[in-house]
TrEMBL record:
PANTHER family from the UniProt entry: ACYL-COA DESATURASE, DESATURASE 1, ISOFORM A-RELATED
Organism of this sequence: Prunus dulcis (Almond)
Protein name as annotated: Fatty acid desaturase domain-containing protein
Notes concerning its domains: The histidine box domains are involved in binding the catalytic metal ions.
Major location category of this protein: membrane
Amino acid sequence: MTPLTRWMKQGVEFMGRQWNLFDIASLGVVLSLHLLALLAPVHFSWSALWLAFALYFVTALGVTLGYHRSLAHRSFKLPRWLEYFFAYCGVLTLQGSPIEWVSTHRYHHQFTDTKKDPHSPLIGFWFSHIGWIFNNSFRFEIYERRLKNVDDLKRQPYYRFLHRTYLLHSALLGVLLYVIGGLPYLVWGMGVRMVIVYHITFSVNSIGHTWGKQVWHTGDLSRNNWLLALPTLGEGWHNNHHAFDYSARQGLEWWQIDITWYLIRFLQVVGLATDVKTPTETQKKRKALHNASSLEKNKSKVSNGKF
């Protein structure tokens, strides 16, 4: 093992734990984007604002529809070209390659709200929100689980390519935005848009397991939060999701706004989405939460490490 490899693996001591090169790089990227977003008031233009909004919608769908419901849970099938398109949109959120993101999320469902959960609320609200991003050893090494649950993606050259190069794509997008619209486009299209996408997405892990309503027996702390459902394009119906993680639809009631589902349903109507999975009425009855005390029981069991 070379000195560089050893340093990359062991890192340096900071805030009571070891930080390796990947932790430091992740922190640097996130801090840089937040600092870039602070320039927004002095580099405002209406075109830059609308650009940020459009990029937010498209790249957020890359996470919700592409990474999450399509790749992580295989809730429906898309033609390969369309699956790849949404996955690429997800790459532009700088939340990791499809392989890395899907692996982390599948482990989250396997170990939900336990100490093995990659972003467990048991470790703290801040950790479940964003602190886990800067602790790669915890996410991938402690439980010998580095990318071992995504063989379906690793078999495809396209996803291996994105895994090796995913930072490059956002860098190229930043260059393109600067060439087209100067600092306003860079600040709003990369800084502001990315910071919002980060915290909205991460809020599902933190707020979605802390505040809201639980209506299904899930054995965890997942919550439905209507306020979170709006900016996350439907991901805020998190207790619904943990009850029926295979479902392409997360807003299960007519009044539960789920923009991602509306697009999936449209794709289904035009014949582009097939094998679309949703829970049956029988499956819903089996998961229904019939008494309020069950939530307190779940909280007690989770806190005692029984789940």
